[in-house]
Fold this protein.
Amino acid sequence: MQRFTREEMAALVARDIPEGAIVNLGIGLPTLVANHLPPDREIVLHSENGLLGMGPAPAKGHEDPDLINAGKQPVTILPGGAYFHHADAFAMMRGGHLDLCVLGAFQVSVQGDLANWHTGAPDAIPAVGGAMDLALGAKRVVVMMEHLTKSGTSKIVERCTYPVTGLGCVDRIYTDLAVIDVTPQGLVVAAMAPQVTLAELQRLTGVPLALADAARAPN
Amino acid sequence: MPARADSRRQTFEEGNVIDKTVASAADAVAGIGDGATVMIGGFGTAGMPAELIDALIEQGARELTIVNNNAGNGEIGLAALLKARRVRKIICSFPRQVDSQVFDALYRAGDIELELVPQGNLAERIRAAGAGIGAFFTPTGYGTLLAKGKETREIDGRQYVLEYPIHADFALIKALRADRWGNLVYHKTARNFGPIMASAATCTIVQVAAIVPLGALDPEAIVTPGIFVRRVVAIAGATPRIVPGAAA
């Protein structure tokens, strides 16, 4: 069994983003997607602190502390980009104007419930940021995460045990083992990492998985 | 009627002028009393009015309720205000950061109250206050710990949570340039909470890099009209890297 690397996962997400899409990439793993956007497609990145048309990190020495992304890292703005205040930035999400959000996660349930903001540990200081808005605020919400926790249990679960961020909000999950769609009929595997079998994936995941016709290996 | 228009122009030039500029940061924060609710602009340090916060620390107001996206970075600005133990409660979306050690210690010791608000709800509750909206229903947070105990309603098949506006006695914000009427333009993503906080506070206090003559700001480019602003102070050099010709 092979696993998709983090860069391969990012490339898979990027490949599925259509021309003209307005996209928010969440903090963590999803930020890698920016490095894999197809150069021949015009895709506009949204940053919820108040920026559309976000460009790559500036060259060293050209950072501007007033031009940052939601992770508070220095970025650039591309031609056609715009600045706006926070209520407008979130209206773009809350009003359903974004085409796609790519988010990291602790857990996703078979119903598409998302847990990604808080471990619920009693000594943890809670912080939510824009997670709950991002979870609901795009026409399509996809998650990028490792398939298994460090101790080997599935992060795709029957029911989230961590505090949820949003209910029934996830459309697709990209992991290091597979690409899985959340559908009203249950989880459907759209693609698997090389040499991963459905039986093996099923054993590791623990909740029922169906295989999409397109994902079946050719005879 | 040309005659009237002319006399009105004369009045503006000769006296009774609206002048919201004050001489110093200390003058700008005068009158902020103990127990006040104070909005502080900025997202991390971008747009944080550090010199106004320093003046507030110097001024001495205590038992404050602070509204900000974060809970301070490092030991400067908002973090310094927290460290000086002037803050009773903070309303924010993302307190925990790699450099939020001042807040973390106060929180763990039970020395500060935290109201954690999803970021979009925070922005919209501030906007609602400025727009005179009594409350609003939003899907954000439905079914989560942060909506616990709140009123909910199904509207057209979707579940919503009732959220109330956040008003403030004062807002401390940072912009790039102002005129004496308090019209403002901002600098890049440092704009963030400035425009909405300006509208939600009874007394909005702004630090800018430069005060320009009335009429020098392009009316098409003014982001916050002066109606939302009470006091303006120029803090030279406070906004780094001003690009010539940028942002009107």
